[in-house]
Write a structure and sequence with these properties.
Layout lengths: L3 H8 L1 H7 L11 H20 L5 H15 L11 H10 L4 H14 L4 H6 L5 H5 L3 H11 L4 H5 L3 H12 L7 H14 L3 H11 L9 H19 L8
């Protein structure tokens, strides 16, 4: 069973992602500076929410819980992870709960103008990187500098088969997501230069000896073939 500290850590994961943009520099007191710094994180969280993940209203609720725990009315700070308390109090020692409540309000009001916000936005590399959580983890752990496949000196195709073996029989809950993220990457990055710059140079992920424009389709084709051969569509009607 997970400890209470571990449960509380993940309970505030949305707020942690949001406030991570302030780590190392603190939360700005000036509202305009704070709002501008938060935009990439809010866009990334909105995108995740559109895909079925935690939505912005839930993230705002987490931030508001932290604010309530730090307010003068709170009897204790139990339940709020220490790293988030330290970030808030260390950045804004004078009434940090007010700043956090302003942040929560910004987050939950953001969707009302998302079209105008997105039409003028240029995404950051960090923000785009959060679109590929499954693919990024797979590439890092298996084909990164210290990945499993590089240690065993396998070919790219053999490495993919090794990952499939590690996933089987729960491939339905692993492989389709990675295939989808490969397709999304090929949709966003249109040539070898942009693919290599983003995945390899900026995020330190591996493609073996293949070009990225060949590597991502190989991943998608290999995983799709396995699903078709070993996992026919099967579900229960609601």
């Amino acid at each position: 069973m997970l400890s209470e500290d571990t449960l509380n850590h993940f309970r505030f994961e949305g707020a942690r992602v949001l406030l991570s943009v302030f780590r190392g520099r603190g939360i700005p007191v000036v509202p305009e500076e704070r709002d501008a710094a938060l935009e990439p994180a809010i866009r990334a969280l909105w995108q995740a929410g559109e895909g079925g993940g935690r939505n912005l209203y839930e993230v705002a609720g987490e931030v508001r819980l932290i604010a309530d725990a730090l307010s003068p009315e709170a009897r204790e700070r139990g339940g709020v992870p220490a790293d988030l308390v330290e970030l808030a109090v260390g950045s804004v020692p004078d009434e940090p709960w007010r700043v956090l409540r302003d942040i929560a309000l910004q987050v939950e009001s953001w969707p009302s103008g998302f079209v105008a916000r997105l039409s003028h936005a240029t995404p950051t590399s960090w923000e785009l990187g959060r679109r590929f959580p499954q693919l990024g983890e797979f590439l890092l752990n298996y084909f990164g500098q210290d990945g499993i496949v590089t240690d065993d000196d396998l070919t790219e195709s053999e490495g993919l088969q090794l990952y499939i073996e590690h996933c089987h029989p729960i491939c339905l809950w692993r492989l389709p997501r990675i295939v989808a993220e490969c397709t999304e990457a090929l949709t966003i990055f249109h040539d070898e230069e942009s693919l290599s710059r983003f995945f390899e140079i900026e995020h330190g992920l591996g493609s073996g000896n293949l070009a990225w424009s060949d590597w991502l389709p190989l991943i998608a084709d290999t995983f799709t073939t396995h699903m078709r051969e070993q996992h026919p569509p099967h579900w229960v009607s609601a």
